[in-house]
Here is the input.
Amino acid sequence: MYNFEFVKPSTLDEALAALADEDAQPLSGGQTLIPTMKQRLNQPSKLVSLLGIADLVGISDSGGTLSIKGATNHATVARETASSFPGLSGLVAKIGDPAVRNRGTIGGSIANNDPSACYPAAAMACQATIVTNAREIAADDFFQGMFATALDEGEIVTEVRFPIPVASNYQKFEQPASRFPLTGVFVAKYGDRVGVGVTGASNDGVFRWKEAEEALAANFSADAISNLTVPADDMISDLHGSAEYRAHLVKVMTGRAVAAC
Amino acid sequence: MPKDGIGASTKRREDIRFLTGTGRYTDDINLAKQLHVHFLRADVAHATINGIDTSAADSMPGVARIFTAKDFDGVGGLPCGWQVTDKHGQPMQEPKHPILAEGKIRHVGEIVAAVVADTVEQARDAAEAIELDLTELPAVIDMKKAVADASVKVHDDLTSNLCYDWGFVEENKAAVEDAFAKAAHVTTLELKNNRLVANPMEPRVAVGDFTAHDGMSTLYTTSQNPHVIRLLMGAFVLGIPEHKLRVVAPDVGGGFGTKIFHYAEEAFCTFAAKQLKRPVKWTSTRSEAFMSDAHGRDHVTKIELALDADNNFTAIRTETYANMGAYLSTFAPSVPTWLHGTLMAGNYRTPVIYVNVKAVFTNTVPVDAYRGAGRPEATYQLERLIDQAARELKVSPVDLRRQNFIKPDQFPYATPVAVEYDTGNYDATLDKALDLADAAGFEARAADSKSRGKLRGFGVANYIEACGIAPSNLVGQLGARAGLYESATVRVNATGGIVVMTGSHSHGQGHETTFPQVIADMIGIGADQVEIVHGDTANTPMGMGTYGSRSLAVGGSAMVRAAEKVINKAKKIAAHIMEASDSDIELKDGQFTVAGTDKSLAWGDVTLAAYVPHNYPLEDLEPGLEETAFYDPSNFTYPAGTYICEVEVDPDTGKIDVLNFTAADDFGNVVNPMIVEGQVHGGVGQGIGQAMLENCAYDEDGQLLSASYMDYAMPRAADLPMITVDHSCQTPCTHNPLGVKGCGEAGAIGSPPALVNAVLDALNRNGHDIAHIDMPLTPSRVWQAMNK
Ligand SMILES: Cc1cc2nc3c(=O)[nH]c(=O)nc-3n(C[C@H](O)[C@H](O)[C@H](O)COP(=O)(O)OP(=O)(O)OC[C@H]3O[C@@H](n4cnc5c(N)ncnc54)[C@H](O)[C@@H]3O)c2cc1C
Here is the structure.
């Protein structure tokens, strides 16, 4: 690890001011950032912890929308959404291990946009709104490919708003080593539409499987997607699975998520 | 007999310190004025080093000195402890294995420069300021290509990338060809034994120290065999005589073979400490461990089995490519040869066998022994092959095995691959395992799985291994440059307590618990009266260390021999005091008695007399009660057994669920059943890891693809089933005093073929026609095989 400054402000404004410094970076749970720093792959001049900002923690449920503040950790979300949004609670409860869940946050996960992160699948399927200190961004616009987002330099994810579906489920097929999803699919059923968010599979990062969304909107059953195929062209191929395999898993996991809804 | 003697499942006394954080590992050792070294490691697999510019780094804060290969002029390379002779009678090709890369980089992770500084962070900072001038070269990764095409050589001074081309038994070759020509059926399989990284929980650590007042060098290191390191490093690398060199291996957090070998970092820290007159410490990071600990396995094999019209095995022929990596690690050449070819008969009566092994240099981390070492590779090939033969012949794989077993009345049995099994009963472990695994109920369970859309399979594998390594005169003839005896000193204190100084080394095996049980049993005192000392060349007799399931069979035997000497002497003392003849003295429950009388003396009375020799036969006996023995085994021991695995495959994803695992082992006599079961559990866990999860992979440029736990999959508790372990089928070893065979490696040897056989059974009995899938059987590989 290289040397860096560390500040832990108690207000968002102080945090934004601190982030104005060159090479300053926000720190939430540190579950992604700290390992990269230990390997000297990242050299921030200053870390600005967001965990001291009371306004950035908490969950609220109003009028069918679940709002999770940016620095809320996974364990809290898993616990507090168990009855209001069991599909999301189930997703979060399977992120990493207890230590990771007690530290890692929704803001960090969404901002990092790891191609295998779980939260983005739910955000896409639910067409969540990502709220920052500056603006509100639709999930479709926010996620822009592997590790790329619409966030500007120094912009902070303060909240994520999920319209609560009628039914939802997340199927995570684990990569055997990291236990991140090799392919994960979040299915969200609303009165007027169905969302299917896919993570882990594509070279372009998280995506919505729109053909499945349409088919499921017409007929919400696993049979509805039986004739669809997922093209393997843009899928990730690596040590843990070929592109064909991942394309196949997208369909299998979607079917299982629908069946479990 | 004491309640904690042989046969008692005494709890492991060492666990108290391990579980309460009071263990003393090498990294816990911090010496005054200690410096830290950071190794600058190659990030390319193959390159010429044109220059290393340390000028900017030299003056960075905290830097004591930066070393490169030129600082090691006159220092030897890391020695190889085994010379294999090839099929033409020529010695293997043996390149120099320098401490720091000399002129060329040959694998990712090789040390290019070493920065010694006040802190690790300062050393790392300075390492980043070192400028390397490299010319990258194409890498040699694929073994067959490395042999076929010599245009790129790992070592320019060798004639090719072939270390040796070994034939065994060369005289059998013609008979084998003949048997294949006459065979009624021939089954052929091509398979890979996947490369593994051992990943002990504790990474490697070395602390070198030099004390000017006495000119002593001391190395604290994470080793399974401190005496071997002292000999190799002292005599062959640094030129330090053994009386000026002490090697200490304190608590070691798992070895699995990878901590047997003498590594560059150990020699470096010892050398640099002497140069700088300050202690020098290195603690491996997990990332470094992936690219510098010797890897395991990595064989590519074609194996063929000839059968007659009655399904009797008539011959086996194999051709194996064995990866050596870029340099020869300490015992690397012996693994695919003498620890592998000699086991190709397995548990069966195959009359003639020919094994060909081509050991190959590639631009990868050196490969050496890993739990089982050669024997898992042999077992895997053979047990996969027999299953495939049964499938082709449409006979039961269990029946085919049983029909070809060496039968209980055929021992001692001389195999066509140069070893003689002393005892065994393979039918017994097979019957036991089938019973415990409820083979009879399998069809009903398979039907149940099918009704849930799952494919259920039942896999059987037998194994045999050669343990208790090894008769020194024999291994000497086979090319070992070391003896393989073991040693022990039994020191009885005046008040009767005992300290055993053993050359064996415990790094998880539980010697501190089991060795006292043996002594307690022999003398009839409590095991708590016995302390075990190991791991320090300053206070233990020259020993060869722990690997090859040898500690109890060889180290325990040495301890028994030393204890026998002690008891004989104590009886003489007791006879003198009780005015009886030596031959009338009996020792039982810690009491010496004179046969036919009511005279008795307690153990402690006699031991006190030995050190306060007032009433003592001083004209015939020396005072004191301390004896040393060296034990050289007359044969290997041959643990054997049957492993059964039951799996369910999810046809939609290819994911395997291991439902049940049964191990019926014949380890001969058992000292502590609980520890034996633990050893089997751990071994099976590692074997399941190899079979389903672990895969050390390189890309064609020699970059390590699985260089962290993000990509290298270790087994976790949730991946493992409940394991049923039985060791009631005992045919005690006939040639060591305890009748023990060794249990440390069995689990890792027998489990991979049992699991793979189970998966292939599941697929084939459900309509797929699949001969083989290479390990690890990841969901993706299983699905690809099903959807080809
Ligand atoms: C062992 C392990 C297993 C894991 N398994 C999974 C898994 O199965 N599924 C999964 O989805 N994830 C998994 N993770 C990742 C985990 O969910 C992390 O918590 C998450 O990726 C990052 O969250 P964090 O709060 O720790 O962010 P940090 O590490 O603190 O930050 C990550 C990045 O986001 C930036 N950042 C942080 N907060 C904000 C913010 N509010 N606004 C803008 N930028 C911000 C940081 O500057 C940094 O660049 C795993 C992690 C580990 C260590």
About this structure: DSSP finds 19 helices and 28 strands in chain B.
